[in-house]
Amino acid sequence: MLIIMNREATHEQIQNVVAYxxxxxxxxxxIPGESRTAIGITGNQGALPAAQFEExxxxxQAVRVTKSFKLVSRxxxxxxxxxxxxxxxxxxxxxxxxxxPCSVESREQIFKSAELVKRSGAQLLRGGAFKPRTSPYSFxxxxxxxxxxxxxxxxxxxxxxxxxxxxxxxxxMALPYVDVLQVGARNMQNFTLIEIVARSGKPILLKRxxxxxxxxLLNAAEYILSIGNYNVILCERGIRGFSDFSRNTLDLNIVxxxxxxxxxxIIVDPSHGTGHRKMVSPLARAAVAAGADGLIVExxxxxxxxxxxxxxxxxxTQLDGMIDSLRQIAPAVGRTLNPxx
Amino acid sequence: MLIIMNREATHEQIQNVVAYxxxxxxxxxxIPGESRTAIGITGNQGALPAAQFEExxxxxQAVRVTKSFKLVSRxxxxxxxxxxxxxxxxxxxxxxxxxxPCSVESREQIFKSAELVKRSGAQLLRGGAFKPRTSPYSFxxxxxxxxxxxxxxxxxxxxxxxxxxxxxxxxxMALPYVDVLQVGARNMQNFTLIEIVARSGKPILLKRxxxxxxxxLLNAAEYILSIGNYNVILCERGIRGFSDFSRNTLDLNIVxxxxxxxxxxIIVDPSHGTGHRKMVSPLARAAVAAGADGLIVExxxxxxxxxxxxxxxxxxTQLDGMIDSLRQIAPAVGRTLNPxx
Amino acid sequence: MLIIMNREATHEQIQNVVAYxxxxxxxxxxIPGESRTAIGITGNQGALPAAQFEExxxxxQAVRVTKSFKLVSRxxxxxxxxxxxxxxxxxxxxxxxxxxPCSVESREQIFKSAELVKRSGAQLLRGGAFKPRTSPYSFxxxxxxxxxxxxxxxxxxxxxxxxxxxxxxxxxMALPYVDVLQVGARNMQNFTLIEIVARSGKPILLKRxxxxxxxxLLNAAEYILSIGNYNVILCERGIRGFSDFSRNTLDLNIVxxxxxxxxxxIIVDPSHGTGHRKMVSPLARAAVAAGADGLIVExxxxxxxxxxxxxxxxxxTQLDGMIDSLRQIAPAVGRTLNPxx
Amino acid sequence: MLIIMNREATHEQIQNVVAYxxxxxxxxxxIPGESRTAIGITGNQGALPAAQFEExxxxxQAVRVTKSFKLVSRxxxxxxxxxxxxxxxxxxxxxxxxxxPCSVESREQIFKSAELVKRSGAQLLRGGAFKPRTSPYSFxxxxxxxxxxxxxxxxxxxxxxxxxxxxxxxxxMALPYVDVLQVGARNMQNFTLIEIVARSGKPILLKRxxxxxxxxLLNAAEYILSIGNYNVILCERGIRGFSDFSRNTLDLNIVxxxxxxxxxxIIVDPSHGTGHRKMVSPLARAAVAAGADGLIVExxxxxxxxxxxxxxxxxxTQLDGMIDSLRQIAPAVGRTLNPxx
Lengths: 341, 341, 341, 341
Hints:
The structure is a homotetramer. Chain A is an alpha/beta fold. In chain A, 33% of the residues lie in helices and 18% in strands.
């Protein structure tokens, strides 16, 4: 159920509705918009009668929401959500580029990466400290040490930091060090993890699972919003298909589909979405042209000696070139991308 | 087997190699390039010994080709193929846009469509006369009457015409009327049809099947080239996936993959690739940004009353807007798109 | 629209309804059932008013059919269709096994195959004369010569013959030689071919395309029935998926789904459905246990020297063993499989 | 690396090899077989030289294993693994059937379920206490209360209990109550969870993720074995495809593929694999015929009023009928299924 308040509804009227909802043992989610406030109700088992809400002062309408997701829905909040990370605004007019190595491998490697990322014009630094790996015998990241190094590198080059967490322990470890917590594709429906990261209050980068439908992706995001954390950035990173030429099938159709169904920002990961260095820049351009709010790409100072995912990591000069071409495309989709620093 | 000739090889030397190949009961395919000529050999059952060819005058090297396709391969011909249709060059610097209704429905409808297509800046007119339809009870096109109308409309507005053929009968009927023969996705591995259209000598628009791998697509094209028709335009139109938000999954990863593996041009069909009018322009932009040589899109003067595919056909003004935005993106990928006439 | 006649409706009443339907410019399809006759109507563009039919003598009810397929629907004809091929009944209590080599390679090979097939207890002989192949350079079958040989082998060992046709030419060539015409997976939506084989009046083996939905499969069959040929055998042969352990993904879920939606028999091809000899027998057993009416399997007297698909062809003794185990499973699903001759 | 010991190797020789491996900072996994012992080595970053191991007394051969999984591989251990749960042996000649409701809903419901499961001849009781659900607003299970009830019901009817855990908290809660810990499909690559359940030492039921390859499934199991817990039961439960007639696509090809690649038992879940009650029994029969070691199926005393997954839960009499028909199929695949108690 979604309660739409009058444009002129007072603060008291809104609080009154919230109090009434809570008196029923339900949860109220205030969703302030540009022109009016809406209040989402969650926690009800069955349908609620609209009439009892529509009689409250300041209420225009009580809308039954048929989709299982509510808070992420554009019906609930027509305006785009902008997620603020430091000085960076994700989901606004300015495109966001997140870049860096798959894994933090050494202090030197991540500082060099940060320098190159900054130089390219990208605004955030990525780097893995905890790596979920298909095989138990693969390199799984340097943990706390990596977090400490990437935080220092981010500070040195004035870049907020994005890093993946995989469980409660890594989440607690990462909290003091990172600015955006990433939930990886394999964990999109690890609801325990999702609730833990949601409660941190930090912005969350939520990657679409390789077999996830739009409904499942938005419901996973709904878990986060239903806990009261509205700072969610969705990410398309390729789905599993039958391709004989790419690691995954990058599904850019989802970009306009998300834009229609939800107010949340969506970025694209062309590194995992293609799995081949040569394809990254073309698909990065495509993602921006399709309307994505930004990109997350793997770049390594020396990809040929990377400990993980080297074959899909850009060379530093490729990152520069990619961002230069995005700067040309941005105006065609009503976006900007600031010049290199 | 591929015979690479010396840069300075004479015409006689080339003819000598061709004659030798034919004397073995095999077929020789001369592939002139910018700097040197190559000669593809087909018709051999097993491997051929390289040495016997390398001794012929003017031959640099005889290369065993491990892929099952040869003539479509960029190894065979490093330079991009440009397919010339009237004054339009598909595969060069200039982007190509093909637009028009799913089906030719009436003389008036296709003339109005042609006028709108011309006005938008698109260079070719599409319109179906023979429609393969899932159900035997659906509208299957107006056949010869449609061909006559679309030819007249194309002439009136100086637009070469693209139309699908589905069998030997429709192919024979269409030949005097159309400039490009389209082989639809359902027929990508209808090899009898492919050989028939190939023999026409006309340019062929070959659509990727909904479950076709890159290898299968390029082998289907190889059928056409092996018959001696080198004027093939590939087309990505969406693959079958599990999407709950689009009719098909548009697979733009294949664009750079084709560019690397083959010299043939590739265009993209965002109408079938998404199945929703609202998604067509974003994905059209994405296709161009990914490096496609052009687009084929459905536009109808009155989509709400179209006899087929109305829900994915652009309104005329949407076509104008789409092309305007492509014009902005083109320079970022080293392309041009001429101003509206 | 489907007209349900009274159990006691007379022949005159039925002919009267047919005549009325035809007087409207529509087509009537008489569908005799065990207890009553139904009459399907095709050819109407929009909905027909039920009332005008329900007033005719002998008519119980006129049912609007919402699915795009009608004649293949179990609503239209509740009783299972049994396709008679020589003495073999496909779709009844007795399981049907079709076996033989991928391609007819020589007179000796197909005679030896027929002998082995007969010995195993299988009832029909398969063997390709026209092979659609991914690459234009692969072996494409021996054509008319192969047809002549397989017919002779079938007669010698009293086995009706199944062979694939790919176009009008091969269909005309095959008609005098074969008992069942096969439409391959690549051609499931080659509607021209489907209509040609339908008109032959012969039983048709229609293979599901690798990306075909149930709706598409049944609509392809509907093309055949709508022309008046009711002898259609459906065949599941694996869909395209992401498998790293089999050539295709055999989709046995479709067996009970077809049984619910349609009256047509469905058999399964575990050779293409798995692509590995070792998996053929387990999946053949699974298909029968899931309720399939039979199987089509590749067996070669000498698979290691087969010209095509040798890696998925059974050794002769494996065919024997497979059929022996099917004989044990049959009673659990209310079927029989006769002892070896 | 895998060290193959001589058939006559002494205990001292084996311990000597283990000690040598550990002295290199690596991990040794003793894998006793029927005729000889093998020793798996894990923990090495790069390749190890075989020669240095082959010189040790009692060693026959040191084999480099190219797959990323080792301990789950049939190369490592040729004999089938049998997982013992109470008196039930999973992976042996006797088929195992696990049945029960999706969720434990009340004491009465789970006791009634247990009675019906026992009566049917199934050997284990399933029932969810912690339910991962797509939407945050769906019923998520009764937690500890449910565990207490299902344990009591299992004891009352002498049925070991299987229940899903989703995180460290639910795992700790479940440990005193359940006999087999289930890791759900959404969590197949939640490696933190997998390591937690592995350390419990309990038998683990590991479900294949909806987009998981065989390699990924076996590597997920490898995580468990690499921790020293060898009691893993794999489970196929349907993959995500494009089906318009079933919730998932049950991929029975994986059954013989697992049997070839690994020594671990594999069971099949036809309830989730089809998503329709009517399809469950046919596909259960198919799974057994394909060689599965058992089944896990949803049965509810009153499916029409189930709190979750009612539409795919069997009626009690359907479970009886299904197991009766499995009893008929079992001998065809060299299996048994004991008569009802």
